[in-house]
Amino acid sequence: MTRHIAFEGLHNFRDLGGYRGVDGRTVQWGLLYRSDSLAKLAGSDGERLRSLGIRTVIDLRYPWEIAAKGRIPELGLDYHNLSIEHRPYDQAEIDPDVDPWRYLADRFAEVAEDGVEEIRRVLDLIAGAEEPLVFHCASGKDRTGLIAALVLSLLGVHEDEIAADFALTELATPRLIADWHAANPGRTLRWPGFGRAPEAVIRLTLADLAAAHGSVRGYAADRLGVDDALVDALRGRLLAPAV
After folding, report:
1. Pairing of strands 78-81, 56-59
2. 73 within 8 A of 58, measured Cβ to Cβ
3. How far apart (Å, rounded) are the C-alpha atoms in residues 227 and 218?
């Protein structure tokens, strides 16, 4: 199966299938996708998206980002805007002297605390979807990466595979940087880590959640109100039956 799916206007569209979860069951291919902003769909991309059978889109961006950059074209899909981040910051202006990966992990921790209502709704939508679903933010890196990590954790995927999936965004980093320069003529990109997604960021994030709540599942129960029924629904929806 293909993890990276090529589009004309997108750089970071990926299938979350293939990872080994609880009881040795594998995340099914073709059910759950992560992406950078679907507002960038171009040319025949709409038909490419339709060919994947996707019927639900979760847009994790702020409403003001959508107003400025647009949203997925009208393709007859079930669209949800759930802005999980509540404290905006400009990554291009991050102080180059700070510990970059600790800084990003701290921002992820803010999202995990501030966005509990929206994150829970995302999990409900994923568990309840009857057809393939995609979730995205702007670059498909941070907000998207956090949701992917939480879902994969609840499916029982090992941290090493979660971290490796997170870091696959590094393959898109040059194009994300090029997009930024094209959209910001005359500005200087101060932060050398812009567009990066090293494993360290999500490992720190998962460790922080475990330190505060005992585990990622503990965080989901304590802060998101995720019970065994929802975890079972996610696993029943996304994991292949045991053989």
Report:
1. parallel
2. no
3. 10
- Which string of DSSP letters, residue by residue, matches 111-163? HHHHTHHHHHHHHHHHHH-SS-EEEE-SSSSSHHHHHHHHHHHHTT--HHHHH
DSSP-based three-state secondary structure for 201: helix
Cβ(30)–Cβ(54) below 8 Å: no
The alpha carbon of 72 is separated from its chain's Cα centroid by a whole number of angstroms, namely 16
Q: Are 78 and 56 in contact (CB under 8 A)?
A: yes
Strand, helix or coil for residue 220: helix
Name the token pair of 217: 């599942």
> Which residue is associated with the tokens 């929802």?
230
Q: At what angle do helices 159-167 and 199-213 cross, to 10 degrees?
A: 140
* Residues above pLDDT 90, as percent of the chain: 97
Q: What angle (nearest 5°) sits at the alpha carbon of residue 154, between those of residues 173 and 143? A: 30
> pLDDT per residue over 217-238, tens digit each?
999 999 999 999 999 999 999 9
Contact call for residues 87 and 62 (beta carbons, < 8 A): no
Q: Is the pLDDT of residue 92 over 90?
A: yes
Please name the amino acid found at residue 79. Answer: Y
Q: What is the mean pLDDT of residues 153-169?
A: 98
Residue 243 clears pLDDT 80, i.e. is over it: no
